[in-house]
Specification:
The chain is an alpha/beta fold. It is 40% helix and 14% strand.
């Protein structure tokens, strides 16, 4: 069985995004879709001394473009975001472990496109920091011709998927019977039950960037995303 997920690239996504990546054999960045304003493609939340705050990459106001076509003409945002990340997490126990890794991405590299930045960050965190062995591809590699709902099925067929792992929000527009007719099983990801982790701030939130988890738990980060489920099963047994 080949398990596949298709998701648009997001800016420093939350831990649930990486949970799905870990669940599949092939992860497809579905970035040749319409860019949506006020979504997760170019922004995410961090925890600061003043509570949750947004980090937003400025991408202009043009809404008639695909995610993969969103350009990043000004590099000033990267320096500003790194400064804000450093200020927010400098006292987190594992910030020092990852400081050089992320400083190089934000300060030493030049990014021309939002999709390129997001994908590089997600792949790097997955492989280098979380030890995930999933294969990554971009939907543009498949020469898709179908539209709307049929596009997902076309893409899954071209990847050879037998199982489609999807986030729960997609239930609003996906019907299992259409996938069953194509010979593809749909598995709905459950984001419930994530354990809290020790935090330098008084309040805790699950819905912030993965960087929050990495800076607070270091080498134990993977346990807080998926490893805890094994422990829970052992206790239940």
């Amino acid at each position: 069985m080949k398990r596949v997920a298709l998701i648009q690239s997001n800016y420093i996504p939350w831990k649930g995004y990486f949970d799905i990546i870990h669940d599949v054999d092939l992860f497809v960045f579905h970035d040749d879709l319409q860019f949506t304003k006020g979504d997760w493609r170019n922004r995410n939340r961090i925890k600061t001394v003043d509570g949750e705050r947004w980090l937003t990459i400025p991408v202009g106001t043009d809404e008639r473009r695909r995610i993969c076509d969103v350009a990043l003409p000004d590099a000033a945002w990267a320096r500003d975001h790194w400064r804000r990340l450093e200020d927010a997490y400098k006292h987190a126990p594992y910030f020092g472990m990852f400081r050089d890794y992320f400083a190089e991405i934000y300060l030493d590299r030049s990014w021309q496109a939002l999709s390129a930045f997001n994908q590089a960050m997600i792949i790097g965190i997955s492989k280098d920091l979380l030890g995930i062995g999933t294969t990554f591809v971009d939907s543009r590699e498949f020469g898709l011709t179908a539209a709307k709902g049929e596009r997902v099925i076309e893409l899954l067929r071209k990847t050879g998927a037998s199982v489609y792992v999807s986030g729960p929000a997609a239930r609003n527009y996906i019907t299992d019977d259409r996938f069953a007719a194509a010979g593809i099983e749909v598995v709905w990801k459950d984001y419930g039950g994530y354990p809290e982790y020790p935090h330098v701030r008084q309040s805790f939130s699950h819905g912030v960037t993965i960087l929050d988890l990495l800076f607070h738990t270091g080498p134990e980060a993977a346990w807080y995303i998926w490893g805890w489920r094994t422990s829970a099963k052992l206790v239940a047994a």
